[in-house]
Amino acid sequence: MASPENQTCYECGSRLKGRVDKKFCSDQCRVTFNNKIKREENRVMNHINNILRKNRNILLKLNPQGKSRISRERMNEAGFNFTYFTSVYTTKEGAKYYYCYDQGYLPIEKDQCLLVVRKNFTI
Ligand SMILES: [Zn+2]
Prior knowledge:
This protein is elongated. The chain has two helices and five strands. The protein is of the alpha+beta class. It has a five-stranded antiparallel beta sheet. Zinc ion (ZN) binds at residues 9, 11-12, 14, 24-26, 29. Zinc ion is lined by residues 9, 11-12, 14, 24-26, 29.
């Protein structure tokens, strides 16, 4: 087991004195360290949020009438990222609609997608 003398501050690396479970030399180091973690978490979430926002904009642009049929290739060319969506709606027949917020698509035959808009969104 590590003795207190061998423990160093997670933030600045200075040697810690006192309790064995201490992680920081000061409140300032604790706040700085936790802010760094929060920043990294925000960076990850912002990255994904940006992809979702872009996906929604692409669907909106490709589907101005609210219902259209389009190839996956065209969605790919527009920069659509099929990995990210906000929800999935499965019909009784087992068809899966993938949504990016209110804009969605249903993969259909021959690498085609049916683009749809979900109205009456309940939050
Ligand atoms: Zn420190």
